[in-house]
Amino acid sequence: MFERAYLKTLMARITEPRKFIQVVMGPRQVGKTTMISQLLTKLSVPYSFESADAVLNTNSFWIDQIWDSARVKKKSAMADEFLLVIDEVQKVDNWSEVVKKQWDRDSREGTNIKVVLLGSSRLLIQRGLTESLAGRFETFNLGHWSFPEMEAAFGWSIEKYIYFGGYPGSASLVGDEERWKNYINDSLIETSISKDILMLTRVDKPALLKRLFEVGSLYSGQILSFTKMLGQLQDAGNTITLSHYLNMLSDCGLLKGLEKYAGDVIRKRGSSPKFQVYNNALLTSHGDSKFSDVLTDSKSWGRLVESSVGAHLINNSLSERYNVYYWREGDKEVDFVLEKNGKIVALEVKSGRRSYNSGMKVFSEKFHPSKVLLVGTDGIPYEEFLRVNPAELF
Fold this sequence. Notes:
Elements: H1 6-14, E1 21-25, H2 32-42, E2 47-51, H3 61-76, E3 82-87, H4 95-109, E4 113-119, H5 122-132, E5 137-141, H6 147-154, H7 158-164, H8 177-198, H9 206-218, H10 226-230, H11 239-251, E6 255-260, H12 265-269, E7 274-277, H13 281-284, H14 291-295, H15 298-320, E8 323-329, E9 332-340, E10 343-350, H16 358-367, E11 371-376, H17 382-385
């Protein structure tokens, strides 16, 4: 079975002396549970794997029960240490307070139980961590599968990856595109929105949130003001509601709204968003076109290439801790702007014949980036760029 590089890092953390709760976050179907299963087979210590998927969200006592059970199992096994893994922990109300109570009890009593928490809603996980578990945890962000991973695991070409994206569970279905699209829409998108947002967070207009995702996905790689979006969405409410819903979709690893780079935090937050899916499958599964048709349509293919580069950038931004923006002034535009520790990298994506972009020159004169890179035509081949960790650009 294919092992993601994340496994080695998590293994190293788990085998260290007990110090922090390990919190693994990531969208659905990126392999969190599979990675934990692989980890457990490599460990020689006793463990317990529990899932909150079928637990009532009001039953926070459930965490107390499984923790007490872990202590009993450790004692009966006469083991020096024990590993407790809790999946989908964010589904339990007040989970962070209960985890804090039990973790602190073990710390006081010298009980060597190590803990891994898994969750698919980054918003709810982070809220619990900041409210109750300060200083007691390390986070571990799993992103969508990269091109090198899909290539190594399934032998995919760069063209296949750009069109079908990086969901490993859908790889066996790409020979039947209609079936593949149904799987992405019904089993992944609908489940993520229903279980990770609507069941766990108050959403006054669920139909609006779903429609926002559909429109935003179709416009991936494009800038669209919330004001213009109001005309495309029925019962759209206001721009504040749309912005809030977009943040929810981003926290579930579905759709992000990139802000305009302006060198000023206030102006960034007031900008029109540039929509960007976290996985190109979220874009292509909505359309009527087929893989073979898109390959011969230079305009459609160029859009998918840019979206794939954008997905690569935002997926790595969580674990590598850099920010991703776009820039536009009049008719001058730069596709992506990366920012980390005061350093700026400007990126332009081109898949057609012409590669010159006057926007890059204007941006460079105004903001003086440390690097200006062209991906695609006359620049770094996009296949090569999708193999690079963007953090290495700084």
